[in-house]
Design the sequence.
């Protein structure tokens, strides 16, 4: 079976959020939201640039008062990515955001409930070719849909979205994407599954109010990844109680891990360490992560604690380093290429990664021609020494198993 194959995706209509396509087979996009006051347009733009740099394709800003709409008028022309205006209960703010030139609106059907006002917004959005996200939220569901016995149900969330669509239909507006978020992962999964059965509008996935990382990141991933693996979802947002840059990074990492977006940054793999490790693997891995963080080097890089199993276990990585006897053994595509001092391991890893990325495998192997044989020999020596000193059973598990079996 081909495990590089991406997941089949449920066909949806395509809309354009500015110049970014959403749905209809377009690459799944990452969204995040600014936490600055939108009226403070310089601070907001700074955050938008940081989010775009971290992998956000689309950014949402609140438009909760006239000053925020004025901020949007200044932000939109200078933003590197399309801007979505988040509207709360005042429909006039939606109209003001359209005047500001935003690329999309987000309406919560639980907040603006008057059909006349909803239709007015849809008509104006239609005239300007601006899409709207129907953003149903389990925590702010229209009270008429709340079930006294069962509380918020997936059916009620889907019904809320369909009701909003019916208002849009009345004015011939169909530039729509939909979300049915909840803070409960099973509830949001079921709501999206049901919604995807009854509509082919593109879907925006998220677990709302997921909380601070790491628990929040895990909750959001559980919900979003489950749906993506079923082919549901066209755009995603992590709602974390943290710097929104982390949201954008998490979204990007998830899509890259699932093979749904091309890798932009390094994919760092590292061994979990064990009794055989010759370095502090956690620290070296963290230092490597920091060194690679802001560089667009789409390679898989390995940090391995020893040279006994390291190069073999990381054979599929583009390059990596394995520790041995106060030195690092650098390998490219499983071939030892150089030996470096322990305190230069991360710097050398970065330097070789840049070279490999810019010049390719052939040039890298040619660069290593004079050091390759000595590097392989040194790695073999350190491997033999480690096995000699720590034995085949560095964690003593086999010894313990022998004892158990003798009882
Ligand atoms: S055997 Fe070596 S590479 Fe594997 S976990 Fe232990 S230290 Fe890391």
Sequence:
């Amino acid at each position: 079976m081909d495990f590089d194959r991406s997941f089949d995706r449920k066909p949806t209509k395509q809309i354009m959020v500015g110049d970014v396509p959403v749905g209809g087979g377009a690459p799944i996009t990452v969204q995040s939201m600014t936490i600055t006051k939108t009226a403070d347009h310089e601070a907001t733009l700074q955050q938008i640039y940081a989010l775009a740099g971290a992998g956000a394709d689309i950014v949402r800003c609140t438009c909760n008062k006239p000053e925020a709409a004025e901020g949007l008028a200044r932000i939109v022309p200078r933003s590197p990515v399309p801007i979505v205006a988040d509207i709360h209960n005042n429909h006039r703010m939606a109209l003001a955001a359209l005047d500001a030139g935003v690329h999309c609106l987000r309406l919560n059907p639980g907040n603006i409930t008057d059909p006349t006002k909803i239709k007015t917004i849809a008509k104006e959005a239609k005239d300007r070719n601006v899409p709207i996200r129907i953003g149903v939220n389990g925590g702010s569901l229209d009270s008429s849909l709340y079930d006294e016995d069962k509380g918020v149900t997936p059916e009620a969330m889907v019904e809320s979205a369909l009701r909003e669509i019916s208002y849009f239909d009345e004015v011939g507006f169909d530039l729509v994407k939909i979300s049915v978020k909840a803070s409960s992962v099973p509830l949001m999964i079921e709501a999206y599954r049901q919604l995807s059965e009854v509509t082919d509008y593109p879907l925006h996935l998220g677990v709302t109010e997921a909380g601070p990382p790491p628990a929040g990141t895990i909750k959001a991933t559980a919900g979003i990844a489950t749906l993506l693996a079923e082919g549901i979802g066209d755009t995603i947002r992590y709602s974390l109680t943290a710097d929104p840059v982390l949201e954008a990074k998490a979204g990007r990492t998830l899509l890259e891990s699932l093979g749904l977006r091309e890798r932009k940054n390094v994919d760092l793999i590292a061994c979990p360490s064990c009794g055989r490790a010759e370095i502090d693997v956690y620290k070296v891995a963290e230092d490597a992560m920091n060194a690679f963080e802001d560089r667009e080097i789409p390679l898989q890089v390995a940090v391995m604690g020893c040279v006994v199993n390291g190069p073999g276990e990381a054979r599929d990585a583009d390059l990596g380093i394995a520790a041995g006897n106060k030195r690092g053994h650098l390998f490219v595509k499983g071939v030892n290429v150089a030996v470096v001092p322990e305190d230069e391991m991360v710097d050398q890893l970065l330097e070789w990664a840049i070279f490999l990325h810019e010049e390719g495998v052939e040039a890298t192997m040619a660069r290593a021609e004079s050091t390759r044989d000595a590097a392989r020999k040194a790695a073999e020596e350190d491997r033999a020494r480690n096995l000699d000193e720590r034995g085949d059973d560095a964690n003593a598990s086999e010894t313990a198993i022998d004892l158990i079996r003798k009882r």
Observations:
- The pocket of iron/sulfur cluster is lined by residues 271-274, 276-277, 304-306, 308-310, 313 (CB under 6 Å).
